[in-house]
Amino acid sequence: MTAIQKLLSEVGTVDAVGVEERVAKFTTRSLKKGAKLFGLNLAVTMIDLTTLEGKDTPGKVESLCRKALRPMDREDVPATAAVCVYPSMVRHAKKIVSGTSVKVASVATAFPSGQAPLKTRLEEVRTAVEDGADEIDMVINRGAFLCGELDLVQDEIGKVREACGAATLKVILETSELETYDNIRAASFLAMRVLRDGDFIKTSTGKTSANATLGNNQVMIEAIRDFYLATGVEIAMKPAGGIRSAKQALQFLVAVKETLGDAWLSNTRYRFGASSLLNDLLRQLEAQRTGAYQAPYAFSDATEGY
């Protein structure tokens, strides 16, 4: 029995066919006007507005922060949950959002590959936190996980958790590289066992060809549910990458409500790593107000992709 099989014997395997049947039903839900409006606004508050490019500048980060604080020129549209930037940009973001509800998140631990010495990865985390990061998004060593070195992977997550101090930790599994739903469930439990209340598990870096899907989201939120029922520890969830439309976001929220309940319908328990999603949400909110759809380019774009 491999190390992953041993872990799955403890936490249970995944019925892949059952998962696909379940998530297919989420795409058939129809939200009426009041519920839809609530869901659209809620999704805005759950976005980690992100820029992760080699050409990022303090000016670009400032534009990102301004949009996070005021997504559109309407008082009834809420701010996003956070802005997510590289560690070198944390101090610039913090200057803009300090004292507001918007958090500063930073990717760390040699994002997106995770292929750097642990000492280097931990120093990157500490630097980001010292510069004002409220949240750290780390990547696990997928190669070590797939080789069955689960103690190593868990030990590294624990050390990153320690380096975060009071900051929230989001552990990125990079689900497309884990290959199977069973592996995603195993990695979720591996991470959750060393996380704290309010820490996150996250699907993806947004830097691979396959990112968040309703299927891998479902596997992870069911793992969160099962872990909570066993331990009482409330782990949060962040699907990232590939969620570009308001319709998709609402489907993910239906999945959360029906699997985890209303307690997880909050940006302290659920986030979207999907910056391009924001403009479609704003477009839908404007349509709810006016009855007419605006062109996509009618909304300023502080960033692209992810």
Describe the structure.
This protein is an alpha/beta fold. It is built from 13 helices and seven strands. It has one domain (3-290): Alpha-Beta Barrel (TIM Barrel). It has helices at residues 3-11, 16-26, 33-45, 58-69, 90-97, 118-130, 142-146, 150-164, 175-178, 181-192, 214-231, 246-259, 275-290, and strands spanning 48-50, 82-85, 103-107, 135-139, 168-172, 200-202, 236-238. Strands 1-2-3-4-5-6-7 form a seven-stranded parallel sheet. Helix 5 (90-97) links the parallel strand 2 (82-85) and strand 3 (103-107). Helix 1 (3-11) crosses helix 10 and helix 6 packs parallel to helix 8 (150-164). The longest helix has 18 residues, at 214-231. The radius of gyration is 19 Å and the shape is globular. The mean pLDDT is 93.
